[in-house]
Amino acid sequence: MPHRRTFRCDLHIHSCLSPCAHLLMTPGSIIQRALELDLDCIAITDHNSAGNAAVAMELAQRNGLILIPGMEVETQEEVHLLCYFPTLEQLLEWDIIVSQSLPPLKNDEELIGYQLLTDLNDEYRAKDERLLATAAQLSVDEVVEKVVALGGIVVPSHVDRPVNSIIGQLGFIPPELEIAVIEISKNTKPSVFFEKHPELTPYSYVVGSDSHYIEDIGRCGEPLPGFPLVGDMARLLVC
Ligand SMILES: [Zn+2]
Ligand SMILES: [Zn+2]
CA dihedral defined by 12, 42, 119, 89, rounded to 10 degrees? Predict the structure, then answer.
């Protein structure tokens, strides 16, 4: 059997730009923790924004860590979708589309949480004033179509969860969608999930930590994050 390298990844991490994430989840601290855990690759996937992505990419490159440009979008059906791109430029193009699709509402930081942008010294430089913890006015179909057109891939988030997942909200994955990989949350054993949803066994899966706290990074179920990168995921790493 040909040797296939296994990457230790955590592809679902929220930085301090996500209002639900801890303030200490700065890109620099996330990268430091990933290096301590000897991860090969991470993705920072903030809700509906890539505001910390450029800084995170620069810091990751300085530290020799692979960072896949990403975002977790909430669609108008309240489905969370992880969107990954080969390059930062593609993610930033996507960020503009999502930005234009957000309702014109302001974040209530006392109620919902702070949305902090950081600089290359890993210090807070600004707040994102928009309401990010909400549904963008893009359907699941539109997100998949536009992300794929930009060269990215879509991985439905935490499909085992009853809310904010494609299965919880829609009940199924429309077969015409260009989706090859799904994310199962760390709280559910993949074997148990697939027993319940045999129709989804053709999909590859990843387990992300969905970290909102430093100590949760790399906690991607048992065993710790290791999966062979196949198909679309491998394509992302080639770039
Ligand atoms: Zn989510
Ligand atoms: Zn998340």
Answer: -90
